[in-house]
Amino acid sequence: MSRQSILCARLDNYLLCVNEILPKGLTIRKVYFTLYQAYLSEHGMSAMKTLNKRYLMRVIPAMTIYLILLPFCTGIAKVLPAENVLRYGIVLLPVLPIGFVFWAVIDWVRGLDEMQQRLQLDAAVFSMAVTGMLFFALGLLETTGLKTLHMILVLPSMILFWGFGFILARKRYE
Amino acid sequence: MKNRLKVLRAERDWSQATLADKLNVSRQTVNALETGKYDPSLILAFKIATLFDQPIEAIFQPEKGELMSS
């Protein structure tokens, strides 16, 4: 029996015990029952749907925090005096939710089935290769004095090419 | 690799989504398996064989020349 099955069985037992303890007619019992029904419907969902839902529940709040932090932190860092070392810490704050998003992506990929994992691997390699070549070429152009793209665009371009790579990889199995 | 997944699924009147749920994979994976675009791992092949209560070789057969060494 997997660790997840054991945990689900324990939670099932726990919820049933709580249900027995609570007096009938009590509002909290109704509230609890509604929550229990919600838990059951979640528990009955297919593993893939649950995985995708968990992924979105992690990524959406993290990206929201990132989008709030980005203009806020860069704005504060600009107005702080250059000798204030605090500005370096503030300007790096948006990296934290992005780190959380990457952790959620890794956890999501680990939960995918074998073919989906292969698609994601293909997409990741494609993204790494194209972004690597693009920014290597731009780096070489910069040695000639040409002004090219900002380094901050590495991450968005990786995400963009990951998506493009996924579409290409998926076509092979359609 | 050719397989009888589509036939076996139809015999049980299951949709691709139902089979996907039973195998704990995505519907796209079931579709790729059925069309022969994706060959399953040994563990997934065993899971499929157990689900349909048939030996692996009764479900999956290599294409002509696939077993020949290059």
Architecture overview:
The complex is a heterodimer of chains A (174) and B (70). Chain A is built from seven helices and no strands. With 174 residues, chain A is mainly alpha-helical. Chain A folds into three domains: 1-44; 49-96; 113-174, no CATH class. The two termini of chain A are 34 Å apart. By secondary structure, chain B is mainly α. Chain B has a single domain (2-58), classed as 434 Repressor (Amino-terminal Domain). Helix content of chain B is 54%, strand content 6%. Chain B has helices at 5-11, 16-23, 27-34, 42-52, 56-59, and strands at residues 2-3, 60-61. In chain B, strands 1-2 form a two-stranded antiparallel ribbon. Chain B is globular. The interface between A and B is medium-sized, with 12 and 14 residues.
Give the distance, in angstroms, between the N- and C-terminal Cα atoms of chain A: 34 Å
Domain tally of chain B: 1
Order of helices and strands of chain B: EHHHHHE
- CATH-defined architecture of chain B: Orthogonal Bundle
Mean pLDDT of chain B: 91
| Continuous helix count of chain A | 7
CATH C-level label of chain B: Mainly Alpha
Helix content of chain A: over 70%
Rounded to the nearest angstrom, the radius of gyration of chain A is 23 Å
Please tally the helical runs of chain B, counting DSSP H or I stretches of 4 or more residues. Answer: 5
What name is given to the CATH topology of chain B?
434 Repressor (Amino-terminal Domain)
Alpha-carbon distance between the two ends of chain B:
17 Å
Strand order of the largest sheet of chain B: 1-2
List low-confidence stretches of chain B: none
